[in-house]
Amino acid sequence: MRTSAFAAVAVLAGSVLAGCGSGSGSTGGTSGATAGGGDLQNAKVAFLMPDLASTRYELQDKPLFEARMKQLCPTCEVIYQNADSDAAKQQQQANSALAQGVKAIVLDPVDSAAAATIVKSAQSQQVPIIAYDRPIPATPADYYISFDNEKIGAMIAQSLVDHLKKENAEGGILQVNGSPTDAAAGLIKKGIHSAVDPSGFKLLAEYDTPDWQPEKAQTWVSGQITQFKDQIVGVVAANDGTGGGSIAAFKAAGVKVPPVTGNDAEVAAAQRIIAGDQYNTISKPIKIVAEASANVAWEFMQGKKPAGKATLYNTPSELFTPTVVTKENIKEVLFDSGIMKAADVCTGEYAKGCGELGIK
């Protein structure tokens, strides 16, 4: 699956490596937004991310997007902002980017509904919006790039269900969803239900975690441990942060940690999988979506109209397929592939586990 995803990016990249000269001036985007064409020397593109709760945005998305844009247009400037889970702050950041004359905005919305205002403001100024990772259902962006979030939910949940059945587990499952203001979280939630509901395991309770905050997930899971005690045989958590919070709740309660899912393949999650605390995560190499969004942004900046490979929420889209990671394949998927380095993960207490798995 990783090979096909990288191939898709390579094809897309090939269509946009036209240098940093003048654009064609043609219309781009479903809204008819154009980037203005003309001389793109020192042109600006905004990269607006949603929160600091997930470490990926600062450590991976930002530098990977910037590096790809530099390849495509060495003189272009990337305006990066992180809204730290504040939708109003993200609106201000978008307004500021527009005032600075950006030619395109790549937006990962804090609040998918509130982001409709940003889309309308940008498109009224002929600035295309590329929705990144999280869709904007109410008002179609000009393009949407992400991994398939509904499939992510189904994959992590089915992986857990299959494991519990193999272990002949008897009991129920907790479901820890993502933020209720994030449309991508809603897709993940739908995918989780598609695997859990027909599984034969009782869904004991579920929770929509405000702003994806691990601490809030931990507090909720702690309450469920008190209520359900020995009935909990697994936890489907929508990402590594909420998964980490869930695991922390069991440890704080002095209770054996059941299999817990995750998503994003953060370093901390890899360490927990190696240690046996977390059952799975999802590898969705950020390089794929970061570079694809830079490629699409650059097409728009040249006044072109990139075609989607799919359509979601009336938006031309490209949705990549991720990979489930467990202890059994973590070496191959995350380390042999070069996504992670042993030096960054196999530190301190995790060195022994890495050695046992042949990670070095």
Automatic annotation (TrEMBL):
The UniProt record lists the Periplasmic binding protein domain at: 45-305
Which segments does the entry list as coiled coil?
none
Instruction: Give a yes or no for keyword Signal in this entry.
Output: yes
Q: Write the signal peptide boundaries.
A: 1-18
Q: What is its main location?
A: other
Matching entries from InterPro entries are given as: Bact_Solute-Bind_Prot2, Peripla_BP_I, SBP_2_dom
The alphabetical list of record keywords is:
Signal
A GO cellular component annotation in the UniProt record: outer membrane-bounded periplasmic space
Localization (cell): Cell envelope
Task: Spell out the Pfam families in the cross-references.
Answer: Peripla_BP_4
A GO molecular function term, named singly, is: carbohydrate binding
Q: Which CDD domains match?
A: PBP1_ABC_xylose_binding-like
PROSITE patterns membership: PROKAR_LIPOPROTEIN
The protein depicted here goes by the name: Sugar ABC transporter substrate-binding protein
